[in-house]
Amino acid sequence: MEDIGNVEPTLALLFVLTCIVIGIATQYFLSSVPVPYTALLFVLGLCIGLLQGVSHEAHAFTETLSLWMDIDPNLLLLIFLPTIGFSSALGQQPHLLRKNWGQILILAWPGVVITFLLIGLCAKYFFPYGWTWPQALLFGAMLAATDPVAVVAVL
């Protein structure tokens, strides 16, 4: 990896602002395309990730991309996850939650629990890692959890 210790602090904002502009432009210009917004952002994110192979001297954007690639993942979670959760909660409609509460309890909770148990069972008996029950069930819990922000984004 190339040395990126002498990068100006303002360049760190270049990546964030570019991603925000790409997200807004994608939502605005491609709203008539029948592909989910999150899928389009995923493809654009893959394209941005491919820029990691470009030399850092080629463009300031690839240099700031390297800065963000080396950031602590916990810091990203502490900054962006509460923001995304708050944004999703702010956009919810409480009357729809009250109206659909029965379906949520009947379908969502048992569905996640059954998926969690089945994934844990498969992880215990079919994976070659020799996991204990707590490890297999933890793996199942990580994969079975429903991401409400992603579900709301697709709707």
Topology:
Layout: H1 9-29, H2 37-50, H3 60-69, H4 73-90, H5 94-99, H6 101-126, H7 133-144, H8 148-154
Written description of the protein model:
By secondary structure, the chain is mostly helical. Helices cover 74% and strands 0% of the residues. 5% of the residues are buried.
Q: Briefly, what is this?
A:
74% of the residues lie in helices and 0% in strands. It is mainly α and 155 residues long.
Instruction: From the alpha carbons, calculate the radius of gyration and give it in angstroms.
Output: 20 Å
Q: What's the mean pLDDT score?
A: 79
Distance linking N and C termini: 40 Å
Compressed to H and E, one letter per element, the order equals HHHHHHHH
Count of strand segments:
0
Largest sheet: none
Binned strand content? under 5%
Q: Which residues form runs of ≥5 with pLDDT under 50?
A: none
Broad shape: extended
Which secondary-structure class do the elements indicate?
mainly alpha
Helix content: over 70%
